[in-house]
Design goal:
The complex is a heterodimer of chains A (547) and B (137). Chain A is mainly α and 547 residues long. In chain A, 72% of the residues lie in helices and 2% in strands. In chain A, helix 1 packs across helix 9, helix 9 packs across helix 12 and helix 15 packs antiparallel against helix 16. Chain A is globular. Chain B has a single domain, classed as Rossmann fold, CATH 3.40.50. In chain B, 42% of the residues lie in helices and 24% in strands. Chain B has 4 helices and 5 strands; from the N terminus they run E-H-E-H-E-H-E-H-E. In chain B, strand 1, helix 1 and strand 2 form a beta-alpha-beta unit. The two termini of chain B are 23 Å apart. The model of chain B has no long low-confidence stretch (mean pLDDT 89). Classes of the chains: A mainly alpha (547), B alpha/beta (137). Chains A and B meet through helix 10 and helix 17 of A and helix 2, strand 3 and helix 3 of B.
């Protein structure tokens, strides 16, 4: 006798969905083994190839730092300069594609089946996708990017002997025009943190969520390629895609951990006089990894979700504080004004061809697009993991529009306060400080500096903990062939491995910047991957509508 | 003495549970109790099922098969979890309450050094559940 009809502890009935008919069983290529006392359940060969490739690349940069540095900087230049038109054009396609999803009838499709219910409240969901997506970048660039664009725009254009512009100002600059330079600076900053990056994340996240929750395929990057590659996706094509994703995620995280440690170190030095150096940074990375380990062991709900919510709360408090003690009215009117400036300059900033501002376009925009795209497997997969039960329209609105607006608010308040200090008070410490110190210098000119700077450092550290934790979760899922219930020691392994790679690279001369170039370079093949994903999403959604 | 015996099952490794399944069935037959098979699945497709609903159906079929094979009354309850690698213990403890079980019979591995870092699920349930727990090694 068995009775399960009305007594299921699972979410509401899933309703209609268009499950893809495949003979592949999740975990069929996995190896279940015991390494010492620990049970393992890993994908063959993705786990092994990823692990070995990461070790090999790390040793290469350590053994031949100069050669590696040259190779990577050549690669970096070729990618960001040779393919700038491709990155800009593709990112425009992603934004248009996402906006289309909002207005067309496919927006009604629900992730997880017609009757699925959301797993997380709006608050928890939003906090997690924001913390994974760009929390740390906002801390690093919130003050420094608007300030950099302001200075270069205000300085005007300069042309070299070869007739090519040598300045870093966006578009035609705004020489000597305070208001014009400010508006252009914010338009450019918002352009880099608004619709385009979030459209990149939305495409990857939607592809993964759709093919996993609605089509019944494993939660790995390769699944989105089923409409294109068919059953071949379970073979070497799929292995290569997944290995690339692991590679980009781990090195992306390791390099960010390294750079994050330098910012936290700079902040601690400013505040407590703690010496700047590799010893402090190694200790910081070890501490961040240790906290991430605790978070990993507490799981998705008990770890990363709680930390994300705490950090969102703290970041919001800091934002309100700067807004209230800073030039409140100027900052609020700035928010609207900068949003208008963004929309005004958007067509020119997103134009992929015939640009005169080559330094800005290649050094800033093209670099950013490659960077967001190389992070997209990680952030996209994490967003997919927590987005079951949302409709496509709700998903795109929440992943594209709301974070973009929050970024505009953040940038216009933090950057606005710093630029106001320069223009109204003649306080130029933030303008002159190094990149990682600009935030702390801006806070210096406001009351309660000690407290706000500590909050700033805590935010930097906790954003790294959430990145490290969610990154380990994502890498573990990919290297376990899409199994999300693989043994916990595997997650612990990736978390420690990430920290170890960051420390090793930090200690080697130029190690981190070489690897950052490497990560950026993975953005190029992934742009192609993302374009194919758009096609796959569209086909997948049409099939859902017919189901 | 017992009316509802909860038996946590991992459908992916049912062959390893044979001793525990037999033990639970014998106890259910002896006391005239219902064996309630509880499974925890992921919300993402897994090696067992591609949706939580499909998992629920498979678990129900497993329970029915056990009922027929052992000649006992059975029931089943499936749970979907955000992160089953970590949330298994709290989910099973919730199941103890929700199924109204008065005895839990579950398979557990022989302890090794890893249990110092990650206590076995069986040990954790025995520590925290209000009802009797029988671990079958």
């Amino acid at each position: 006798m068995s009775d399960t009809s009305d007594d299921q502890g699972i979410p509401a009935p899933e309703g209609t969905a268009d499950i893809i008919d495949t003979d592949y069983t999740i975990g069929q290529d996995n190896i279940e083994t015991q390494i010492g006392p620990f049970g393992m359940d890993i994908h063959n060969p993705v786990f092994l190839i990823s692990g070995l490739a990461i070790i090999a690349f790390t040793f290469y940069t350590l053994a031949l730092p100069e050669q590696a540095g040259n190779v990577f900087s050549w690669l970096f230049d070729s990618v960001t300069k040779g393919f700038d038109w491709f990155f800009l054009g593709a990112a425009n396609i992603f934004v248009i594609f996402c906006l289309l999803l909002i207005v067309t009838p496919v927006g009604k499709v629900r992730l997880g089946g017609a009757d699925a219910t959301p797993d997380y409240s709006y608050m928890g969901w939003f906090a997690m996708l924001f913390a994974a997506g760009m929390g740390i970048g906002l801390m690093f660039y919130g003050v420094s990017e608007p300030m950099s664009h302001f200075s270069s725009s205000f300085g005007g254009t300069a042309v070299g002997e070869d007739g090519v512009r040598t300045d870093w100002a966006p578009l035609g600059a705004a020489a000597g025009d305070e208001l014009g330079a400010t508006r252009l600076a914010f338009a450019a900053t918002i352009f880099h943190w608004g619709l385009h990056p979030w459209a990149i994340y939305a495409v990857v996240a939607l592809a993964l969520a759709l093919f996993s929750y609605n089509k019944g395929l494993p939660l790995t990057i390769r699944s989105a390629f089923y409409p294109v590659l068919g059953e071949r996706v379970w073979g070497w094509w799929g292995h290569i895609i997944d290995v690339l994703a692991v590679f980009a995620t781990l090195f992306g995280l390791a390099t960010s951990l390294g750079f994050g440690a330098t910012q936290a170190n700079a902040g601690l030095n400013e505040l407590f006089g703690i010496p700047v150096g590799s010893t402090t940074e190694v200790i910081l990375i070890s501490c961040i990894t240790a906290i991430a380990l605790i978070s990993v062991l507490r799981g998705l709900d008990g770890g990363v979700k709680i930390l994300s919510e705490i950090n969102m709360g703290l970041a919001f408090l800091l934002l309100i504080f700067v807004l209230l003690v800073g030039p409140t009215v100027a900052l609020l009117t700035g928010f609207v004004d900068y949003l208008v400036a963004y929309l005004e300059y958007l067509p020119a900033l997103s134009n992929p061809v015939g640009r005169e501002d080559v330094n800005f376009m290649q050094g800033w925009t093209s670099f950013y697009w490659a960077w967001w795209i190389s992070w997209s497997p990680f952030v996209g997969m994490f967003i997919a993991r927590v987005s079951r039960g949302r409709t496509v329209r709700e998903f795109v609105v929440c992943v594209l529009l709301i974070p973009s607006l929050v970024c505009v608010l953040w940038m216009s308040i933090f950057g606005g306060a710093a630029i106001h200090q320069v223009l109204a008070d003649g306080y130029t410490a933030a303008q002159e400080a190094s990149l990682e110190l600009k935030l702390f210098k801006m806070l210096d000119a406001l009351p309660l500096t000690g407290i706000t700077s500590i909050v700033g450092i805590v935010l930097v550290i906790v954003f790294f903990v959430t990145s490290s934790d969610s990154g380990s979760l994502v890498i573990d899922t990919i290297t376990a062939g899409g199994k999300v219930d693989a043994p916990v020691p595997q997650r612990v392994f990736w978390c420690i491995f990430e920290g170890a790679v960051a420390i090793v690279l930090l200690l080697s001369a130029g190690g981190l910047s070489s690897l950052q170039s490497m990560v950026i370079s993975t953005g190029l093949p992934f742009t192609v991957v993302l374009l194919i994903m758009c096609f796959a999403i569209w086909r997948g959604l049409l099939a859902e509508r017919r189901a | 003495m017992f009316e509802r015996i909860m038996v946590p099952v991992d459908l992916g490794h049912a062959e390893k549970l044979e001793k525990a399944l037999l033990c639970a069935a014998d106890l259910a037959a002896h006391y005239g109790a219902t064996a309630v098979y509880v499974g925890v699945t992921t919300e993402q497709p897994s090696s067992i099922a591609r949706t939580p609903a499909e998992y629920g159906e498979k678990l129900a079929a497993f329970a029915a098969e056990q009922g027929e094979l052992r000649g006992i009354a059975t029931d089943s309850k499936a749970y979907a979890s955000h992160d089953p690698s970590i949330d298994l213990d709290p989910t099973l403890l919730k199941a103890v309450k929700e199924t109204g079980a008065d005895l839990v019979v579950m398979a557990s591995h022989i302890p090794n050094v890893a249990d110092r870092f990650w206590p076995a699920n069986g040990g954790s349930i025995a520590t925290h559940a209000d009802v009797s727990v029988m671990l079958v090694r």
